[in-house]
Design a protein that fits this description.
This protein is α+β, with helices and mostly antiparallel strands. The protein has one domain: YbaK/aminoacyl-tRNA synthetase-associated domain (YbaK protein). The chain starts with a helix and ends in a 15-residue tail after the last strand. The longest helix has 9 residues.
Length: 169
C-alpha cells in the first residue's frame, strides 16, 4: 500500500492516480523494467545535501545529476549526494530508498529536472520497493511546486526483453 501520508495528501487534493504493483526491485532500472514504465517517465528521488540541508532532486530514471551544473544553478559550492545514513530516519513511513518525490510532505526543498516537463505522466516509488504511483506531471508540479532546473542528462539505457513492445525513450 502506498505511503498513507502521500495517499491522503493526493486524495485531499482530488488528484487522480493509479498504483502499480511490481515485483521487488531496488534500482531505477529494475523498477522500470518490472513495472513496464519507460525510463523517462519513472521519476527517481535522489537525496542531496545543499548547504547542510537535506533536499530532493527528482529526475527521470534514465538520467544522472550533473552536480557541477546543480551547484552553479543553486549558487553554492555545497551540494553533495546524501548517504543513506543521512536520511534513513527522515522517512519513517517508507522503505529505505523508496521515498516518493514529495519533499513538501517531509519539510524539504525539491528540485525537479526540466526534462520531466516532457512527460504527460510520471510514476514514482510510493514508499516501498514493490509499488509505484502514476499521476499527471502537471498535478505533481502543482502539489509539490518544485524548483524546475536543467541539472541532469540521459546516461542510462534500459535493457528490456526484445519480445516485449518497449516505448522508446
Amino acid at each position: 500500500m502506498p505511503v498513507k501520508k502521500l495517499k491522503n495528501f493526493l486524495d485531499e487534493n482530488h488528484v487522480r492516480y493509479v498504483t502499480i504493483k511490481h515485483s521487488s526491485a531496488f534500482t531505477a532500472q529494475e523498477i522500470a523494467a518490472s513495472a513496464h514504465v519507460a525510463g523517462k517517465e519513472l521519476a527517481k528521488t535522489v537525496m542531496i545535501v545543499v548547504n547542510g540541508k537535506m533536499a530532493m532532486a527528482v529526475l527521470p530514471a534514465s538520467y544522472q545529476i550533473d552536480f557541477d551544473v546543480l551547484k552553479e544553478l543553486l549558487g553554492t559550492k555545497n551540494v553533495t549526494l546524501a548517504s543513506e545514513f543521512d536520511f534513513k530516519n527522515l522517512f519513517p513511513d517508507c522503505e529505505l530508498g523508496a521515498m516518493p518525490p514529495f519533499g513538501n510532505l517531509y519539510g524539504m526543498e525539491v528540485y525537479a529536472a526540466e526534462s520531466l516537463n516532457e512527460n504527460e505522466e510520471i510514476a514514482f516509488n510510493a514508499g516501498s520497493h514493490t509499488e509505484l504511483i502514476r499521476l499527471k506531471y502537471s498535478d505533481y508540479k502543482q502539489l509539490v511546486q518544485p524548483k524546475i532546473l536543467k541539472f541532469s542528462w540521459k546516461t542510462v539505457s534500459f535493457p528490456h526483453d526484445p519480445r516485449e513492445k518497449w516505448e522508446e525513450e
